[in-house]
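From the shared-data thread, chain only:
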Amino acid sequence: MKALVLSGGAGTRLRPITHTSAKQLVPVANKPILEFGLEAIRDAGVTDVGIIVGETQDEIRAHVGDGSQFDIDVTYIHQPEPLGLAHAVLTAADYLADDDFVMYLGDNLIAGGITDFVEQFRREPSAAQILLARVRDPERFGVAELDDAGHVVRLVEKPKEPVSDLALVGVYLFSSRILDASRSIEPSGRGELEITDAIQWLIDAGDPVQSTIVTGWWKDTGKLYDMLEANRIVLDSLEPRVSGSLDADSEVQGRVVVEEGAELINSHVRGPAIIGKNTRLENTFVGPYTSIYHSCEISDTEIEHSIVLEETVIRDISRIEDSLIGKQVTVGREPRKPRAYRLMLGDHSRIGLA
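Structure, as tokens:
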């Protein structure tokens, strides 16, 4: 069995962060999202991994390399335009050949990994096995309709009037039959070859399509709220560890990781939280569900329920919460007059002022 990991999307819903960074490399609990998927694939016994890349391919290649750091063997497959998941499958047709494969969306997180689902597919081969999860907003996803016996009878991509609350999780298992299906469908109204249409083609052709309802958590981290929620969930599983330094006036409480080289001066961290390598906190409070990445400097600030990327500087801000702050950002007060907000914001930025 092979794996196909999709890391070619532009990440428009996370702009402006993704104007300069691949969305799959935004960290959750100081670990890039893509790494969770690669490790889950490896733990399921799949080591031959193709990665679909697009306009952010240089960053993905630089981070993952040949895959040896994850004990996998990586092949990169360039998709010139993100024209749908079924299009990605066809782009990888030569790599996939006649093999069964697991397709994993690189910005998804699923509790407990995928080992059980892969083993089930090996025991009970079918043309496709899909994972489903109950969601509050099914109109954002591909949605499945099941019959009374639990068989998949219909799939609809982002329906305006959902037929159920069962959304397709971003992990699929396929036989090579999905290539025939993907070649047989037409682009949707969005101009994309939808994987839901390809799976529906299999169902209509009488091919066996299995489904499993995921009972643990699953997150598609495409939006700010989902990213913060994924960060919260992963932080809840941290094993406390202090490898950095705390002065006599600093304290950590609860589930907190202070990584090597980090320094706390007259600062308080209340977990779950993680402070990255070589980050310096001074006169600062870091509240629960906060991830501060590597080489940041934060002083005279309170921050909670947020993600801060590397090499960012924050000074003298009374309160930050529910925020995703990019890398090499500077946030601080200006002493000069007239007193006013002075902003330099990229396209698609959002800022809330008290």
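The domain at 2-234 is CATH 3.90.550.10 (Spore Coat Polysaccharide Biosynthesis Protein SpsA; Chain A).
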